[in-house]
Amino acid sequence: MVSFAFSSEQEDFRRELIRFARAELAPRYTQRAARAEFPWDAHQQLAELGVLGIGLPEEYGGTGVPDPVSLGIATEALAYGDCNVAAAPVQVGLVAAQLAHEGSKEVAGEYVPRLIAGEIVAAIAVTEPSAGSDASHLRCEARPVEDGWRLSGEKIAITHATTAAIGLVYARHPGSSGYRGISCFLVPLDAKGVTRGAMPGMGALPLGWGTLSFDEVFIPADHLVGEEGNAFSGVMHHFDFSRPALGLLCLGAAQASVDEAVAWAQQREAFGRPIAAFQGVSFPLAEHATYLEAARWLCYRALWMRETGQPHTDLAAMCKWWPPQIAKDAIETSWVTHGNLGYSTELPLQQRYRDVASYLVADGSAAIQKRIIATRMFGKVAAQ
Question: CA 268 to CA 272: how far, in whole Å?
Fold first, then answer.
C-alpha cells in the first residue's frame, strides 16, 4: 500500500521545528531580512537543534544515515518562520556532504564538524560573469604547480560570498574545454589572493550574495574535492538534492503567507460581512492551497526517490522551476488579500515576496530546469 505519511519520528521533528519557527524565527524575520548580515544567532540555534547535521556522517557530528526527506521537512518547517535562515541546512548539506564523501580525510576532519556545529558557513562557487547555468564555459583556471594548484578567475552571485570561511570553487585545467577538465577545490577564503565583493539583491540579504576573485591563489594538493577533471557530474548530482529542498523552502514561506491571509479574511469586514464570504477573496486562496499541496508532494517524492537510490534528475528540475513560481504567486495573492496593509513593511508578506523571488534564478532558472526536463523526456522517448 502506498503511504504519504511521515514516520512518527519525522512528524515529531516537523512539529518541533514548526513551533521553533513560529516562536523564535518569525518574530524577528523582517528585522533580520532587512540587513545584509548573516544571522549567526539563529544559525547557532539550528546547530543546537541538530538540523545542520542531518544525513552527515556520525564521525563528524552528524546523524549518520542519509535522510533527504527529513532535511526537506526541516527546510520547509523553518521557512515558515524565516526563509533566509531556512537555507542553512540546504547549504551545509551540499558542502559538508561533498567534503565528507569526496574530500581528503584531513580537510573533511577540519571543516565538516565546524559546519555541523554552526561555527562557519561555506560557499559554492560555480557561476561566473560569462558562465551561469552553462558551466561548460567556466573560465576560472586552476594551473598545476608543485604540491598543488594556482587558482585565478572570478565568481559572481555566490551565496555566502561575504560571510563564508571556505568555498567549494569549480575551476578548469589549462587547455580543457566543455565539461571535461573541471575540478572542485576547497579554498579557505581568507587565503592570500582572495578578494570578496558584495552583490546585494532586492531580497535574501542575509545570504550575503557577492563576488569572489582569485589571483594566483595557492591550493594544496589535499584540497582537491572529488575526481580531478570530473567535478561537473558531481555537483549536478548534489543539485538534484538541493533543488527539491529549495522548492520546499519557498513553499514553507508561501504556506505561512496563505495562513495569514486566511486569518485576515475572516477578521476583515466589507459591506457588513467578513471578506472571506466573497468568492473573489476565498477562491484564489483555495486555488493556491491546491497548488501548494501538489508542489509539496512533488518535492517530497523527489527526495524520497533520492533516499531510495532512484534516478530523480527530472523531478528535481521540476521542483526547482514550479514550486518557487507558485510560492511567489501565493504570497502575492496573500498580500493583495490584506490590501494596502499587506504591501506595507508592517507585515512580513512583502519581505517574503522579495526573498522567495530570488529562487526564480538561484540554482538555475525555470528555463534551465525545463531544458533538463525536456532532455530527459525526449531521451526516454528515443529509448523506447
Answer: 10
φ, ψ dihedrals at 167, nearest 5°: -140, 145
pLDDT tens-digit readout, 168-217: 999 999 989 888 899 999 999 999 999 999 998 999 999 999 999 999 99
Cα–Cα distance, 217 to 172 (Å, whole number): 14
Sign of CA dihedral 107, 108, 113, 115: positive
Reduced to 3 states (helix: H, G, I; strand: E, B; else coil), residue 269 is: strand
Cα dihedral sign for 285, 289, 294, 299? Answer: positive
3-state per-residue secondary structure call for 289-333: HHHHHHHHHHHHHHHHHHHCCCCCHHHHHHHHHHHHHHHHHHHHH
- Cell 519557527 belongs to residue: 21
* Residue whose grid cell is 587565503: 191
Rounded to whole angstroms, the Cα distance separating 79 from 103 reads 30
CA 226 – CA 254 distance, rounded (Å): 37
Domains, the chain, ordered by start: 8-120 (1.10.540.10), 123-229 (2.40.110.10), 232-383 (1.20.140.10)
**Whole-angstrom Cα distance, residue 22 to residue 193?**
43
The per-residue pLDDT for range 50-71, each reduced to its tens digit, is: 999 999 999 999 999 889 999 9
CA dihedral of residues 97, 98, 103, 109 (deg, nearest 10):
-30
Q: Give the whole-angstrom CA distance, residue 117 versus residue 47.
A: 5
Terminal-residue alpha carbon distance, the chain: 29
∠ at Cα 55 (3, 249), nearest 5°? 70
| Burial of 261 from C-beta contacts in 10 A (0-12 / 13-18 / 19+) | buried
The whole-model pTM stands at 0.94
Taking the C-alpha atoms of residue 309 and residue 372, their distance in angstroms, rounded to an integer, is: 19
**Cα distance between residue 223 and residue 217, in whole Å:** 12
Residue 218 confidence class, pLDDT cut points 50, 70, 90? very high
- Tell how strand 166-172 and strand 122-125 pair up: parallel
Report DSSP state, residue 301.
H
Gap between the Cα atoms of 150 and 215, Å rounded = 8
Distance CA 329, CA 71 (A): 25
